[in-house]
Amino acid sequence: MFDIVIFLLLLSMLIILYRFLKGPTLSDRVVSFDVMSIMGVSLLVLLALYFQRSLYLDIALVFGLIGFLGATIFGRFIEKGL
Amino acid sequence: MAFLVSAIGLVRMPDVYTRIHVGTKTTTIGTILVIFGAICIEPSWALKLILLAIFILLTNPLSSSVIARASHKDGATLESDELKEIQK
């Protein structure tokens, strides 16, 4: 059952990767990076259920923190420059 | 399914603001639904999962707001701006 959900999640990550590679402006790429990082959190929760290991939830928490910080720092970079 | 709708919308939508709109809302509802299902399957992990859900609910609108403000100051334009067409 988890196989189907993980397959759908990876399919949508591939479609978003197309937008990440093609995106006309920098903002499009930052938006698709943000969406992909949140999908990565959800994928880690699904993998923790699939392998029955609660260690992956800690990794999901830290990955969510890092992804949020990355999106915010890229936003400040677009706004003000380095 | 919400994630698939998010991906299709992110490819189909014409400009930056609609992409932000599609991206952030559908990923929030999709992650909350996945975490709720995980709580129903494994009730002993509920504390970490609820912490993760609260964290996603707090940070996801914030990051999308930061990106939207930055792209507005960067000078991104709407695909069909009806206000400018009225003002002409």
Walk me through this protein's architecture.
The complex is a heterodimer of chains A (82) and B (88). With 82 residues, chain A is an all-alpha fold. Chain A has one domain (2-80). In chain A, 89% of the residues lie in helices and 0% in strands. Chain A is built from three helices and no strands. Chain A has helices at residues 2-22, 26-51, 55-80. In chain A, helix 1 (2-22) packs antiparallel against helix 2 (26-51) and helix 2 (26-51) packs antiparallel against helix 3 (55-80). In chain B, helix 1 packs antiparallel against helix 2 and helix 2 (16-41) runs antiparallel to helix 3 (46-74). Chain B has four helices and no strands. Chain B has one domain. With 88 residues, chain B is mainly alpha-helical. Chain B has helices at 2-12, 16-41, 46-74, 82-87. The model of chain B has no long low-confidence stretch (mean pLDDT 77). The radius of gyration of chain B is 17 Å and the shape is elongated.
User: Helix-strand pattern of chain B, N to C?
Assistant: HHHH
User: What portion of residues of chain A is helical?
Assistant: over 70%
Largest sheet of chain A: none
Total number of beta strands of chain A: 0
- What's the end-to-end separation of chain A, in Å? 46 Å
| Overall mean confidence score, pLDDT of chain B | 77
Helix content of chain B: over 70%
How does the overall form of chain A come out from the CA principal axes? flat
Total of helices of chain B: 4
* Structural class based on helices, strands and sheet pairing of chain A: mainly alpha
Based on DSSP secondary structure assignment, what is the total number of beta strands of chain B?
0
Distance between the termini of chain B: 42 Å
